[in-house]
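Sorry to interrupt, but I need a hand with the structure work. Leave the record below and I will have a look:
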Amino acid sequence: MTNPQLHKELEQLRQQVAALSKARAEQKSTNSPGEKESSSTSEPEESDAAFKNEIDELLKMLQDEVRDMPAVTALVVFALGILMGRFMR
């Protein structure tokens, strides 16, 4: 890139940063302090609940798969896992 192109791109980036900063400031000014606190405390709770639900679903699926798998096959897979772990050391 030549020097004029760098200056042009730099100016465009500065304009974008200014526009984003202005939008962010406007968004903060429209929210009242009470709304900020309630939204910031509910987001982690919602994400924690979603994470726990996802983990519960995965464990239930794993439990169902283990139940459906014959005992001999499960023991063979377990033994192969142990052997693979030993050989990879």
